[in-house]
Amino acid sequence: MSEIILVNVTGKDRTGLVARVTGVLAEHGVHILDVGQAVIHDYISLGLLVEIPAADPASLVLKDLLFVGHELGVEVRFRPTPLAEYEQWVSEQGRPRHIITLLGRKLSAAQISRAAAACAAHQLNIDVITRLSGRPSLVSPARTPKACVQITASGRLNDEALLRAQLLQLAAETGVDVSFQADDIYRRNRRLVVFDMDSTLIQAEVIDELAKEAGVGDEVAAITAAAMQGELDFRQSLIRRVALLRGLPESTLAAVAARLRLTDGAELVASTLKRLGYKTGIISGGFDYFGVRLQRQLGFDYLYANQLEIVGGVLTGNVLGEIVDGPRKAALLRQIAAAEGLRLEQTIAVGDGANDLPMLSAAGLGVAFHAKPVVRRQASGTISDLGLDGLLYLIGIRERELDPAQVG
């Protein structure tokens, strides 16, 4: 009868190590049932679950493995695996998998420990931990260091809302951003990313900037803040704020546009997504005058925003057409996805205000970017300290896969 053996190889990594170990197994006609490997700072941990044919004595195979291990300077350990135990593993291989991403300037043992403890409390087993960010130098630290690890955990989750709440508490108490999402076929095949504009792609609320030019800055800013916190209906708040801009010269729009600044990481995100074949769009409660310029600058495929009415070279204080509010944002996301032949699970939405919540909730991954507390509590993922390029980690892109010329 064949034997099932778990083989663990640990020690200093070297080129050709895996070839030598598996070469020994090949000589004895061994079948590989499972295999996994990790290398951390040139130290390898290689695991192989093997089936040794009955015709070949297991002791001879293990002896040859020990000889090769000694020759390579690594430790080789064995553990017999009962058939019933192996079949139990086989029966569990279809368990749901989940991705938890921890993102910050630095990551501490305490942060990873609390995330792992939350998984354990919900009977989730951590299968893989992957570093997505680059290795930080302790001698010449970067000006804006980034640290990101991706945890893959498996198991059936009975109370997802409770786990999300615990991860949100972890984020609030330790200063790390946390994203939680299902590891399914849609996560690996997302093709559309849409962004809010004001305070997401650009570092300002445009209507507040226009209000300063009209001499009503404080009044409009107070309304904007309340609307973004979800304390006021966005549609009505927009009508009130735009009305206060009545009589503002059209030329003011160009002056405001000239001083707007992109959010850190916006260009890297836009170019990377375009290079990878994603469709991108702006769905904004701001104004299309500014959105058109941003669309051209970043190469986005879609733009939906509100239109200011201008008559005789001045703003009338009215908005033309259907207002892009929270429900409209979600509807536009669905419209774009349908036009691209995509399921909503294949979409990502990024925003900061309460009016973005319907869009974030509808998307496969909703990301709260430097967002208000009400938004962070309900989003799938958060980015609170890093630039917009933190989104690339939440997608699962490694830093080494980015264009070095654009990484800051």
Task: Give the helix/strand layout.
Elements: E1 3-12, H1 17-27, E2 31-40, E3 43-52, H2 58-72, E4 74-80, H3 83-91, E5 97-104, H4 109-121, E6 125-131, E7 147-154, H5 160-174, E8 177-182, E9 192-195, H6 206-214, H7 217-228, H8 234-243, H9 251-259, H10 266-275, E10 279-287, H11 288-298, E11 302-311, E12 314-320, H12 326-339, E13 347-351, H13 357-362, E14 365-369, H14 373-376, E15 381-383, H15 390-395
Parallel strand pairs: 9-10, 9-13, 10-11, 13-14, 14-15
Antiparallel strand pairs: 1-3, 1-4, 2-3, 5-7, 5-8, 6-7, 11-12
Helix pairs in contact: 1-2, 4-5, 6-7, 6-9, 7-8
CATH architecture of the largest domain: 3-Layer(aba) Sandwich
Strand content: 25-35%
Secondary-structure class: alpha/beta
The gross shape turns out to be: elongated
Give the mean pLDDT. Answer: 94
In the CATH scheme, the class of the largest domain would be Alpha Beta
User: Sheet with the most strands?
Assistant: 7 strands, mixed
CATH superfamily of the largest domain: HAD superfamily/HAD-like
Instruction: Round the Cα radius of gyration to an integer and report it.
Output: 27 Å
Describe the fold and architecture.
The protein is 38% helix and 27% strand. 37% of the residues are buried. The mean pLDDT is 94. It is built from 15 helices and 15 strands. The strands form three sheets. A seven-stranded mixed beta sheet has the order 12-11-10-9-13-14-15, with helices on both faces. Strands 2-3-1-4 form a four-stranded antiparallel beta sheet, covered by helices on one side. Strands 6-7-5-8 form a four-stranded antiparallel beta sheet. The chain is of the alpha/beta class and 408 residues long. The chain folds into three domains: 3-90, Alpha-Beta Plaits; 96-183, Alpha-Beta Plaits (2-Layer Sandwich), CATH 3.30.70; 193-401, 3-Layer(aba) Sandwich (Rossmann fold), CATH 3.40.50. It starts with a strand and ends in a 13-residue tail after the last helix.
